[in-house]
Amino acid sequence: MSSYVLLANLRAGRCSNTAEVRLLRFWEARNVRKDGELMSLDMLLLDEQSTLIHGSINSSRVDTFRRRLSEGSVYSLSGFDVARANPKYRLSDSPVSIRFNDGTFFEPKTDSDKDIPTELFRFRSHEQFLALANTNRELPDIVGGVSSVRSTITDGLRGPQRVMVTLRLEGDVNVCVSMFDDRAVTFQTKFDEHVSKPRVILFTSINPKVVGGKIHVFT
C-alpha cells in the first residue's frame, strides 16, 4: 500500500505514493503553429496545505483520463512523474510539476477527510504586473471592477474576433484585458448570459505586457 504524500514534498522522478488533490481547472493546450493541434490537457491541482501545482496529460493519454475530470472534485492520485517546472509561463509557485503516465491512478475520492480549499488564486499588485510585463515568467490572476467592454462580436465586425475589458484595480489603476478568437467568443457568450452585467470580473492565468506605456494583459 502506498504512503500519503503532500504536494510540497514531491521531488523529481517517478512517484508511487498517493496524494489527495482538488482539481481546480483544466484546459486544452494547443499548438497554434500547427493548426491548433492538441499538445496536452493541462490542469491546476491543490492539496490540503494550499500547495498549488501544475499537472499535464500528454495528448496520447487524453482520451484515457478526460472523462474522469470534473472541476472542483477531489481525487486520489498516484503513479505519476514529477518534473522540474518550466521557468516560463508558470502557473504556480511550485518548483515541480506533475505529468501523467500510462500507469497513473487518478480517481474521484468521495470520502476524503482532507480539508482542501475549494479555490486558490495568485493575485498580483499593479507594481508586480509591471515587473512581470514582457518577461513571460508567470501567468498570475487578476480581479477588478469593470470599467468598459469593447467587442468586435457585438459590433458585428468581420475577421478575427477580439474582446477588450478594462478593469479598474486598487488605486484606480486601469488595466486592459484582451481576448481573441475562440476565447473572445466564449467570454462574450458568458457575459451576455447575465441579466445584469457583471461589475467585477476575475481572469486567471493572464500574461501581462506593456503596450504604449500601459499595462495590457492577455488570456
TrEMBL record:
Every copy of the Replication protein A 70 kDa DNA-binding subunit B/D first OB fold domain together lies at 18-105
Domain of life the protein comes from: Eukaryota
Cross-referenced PANTHER family: OS03G0429900 PROTEIN
Q: What is this protein called?
A: Replication protein A 70 kDa DNA-binding subunit B/D first OB fold domain-containing protein
Organism, by scientific name, is: Brassica campestris
Starting at the broadest rank, the lineage of the source organism is: Eukaryota, Viridiplantae, Streptophyta, Embryophyta, Tracheophyta
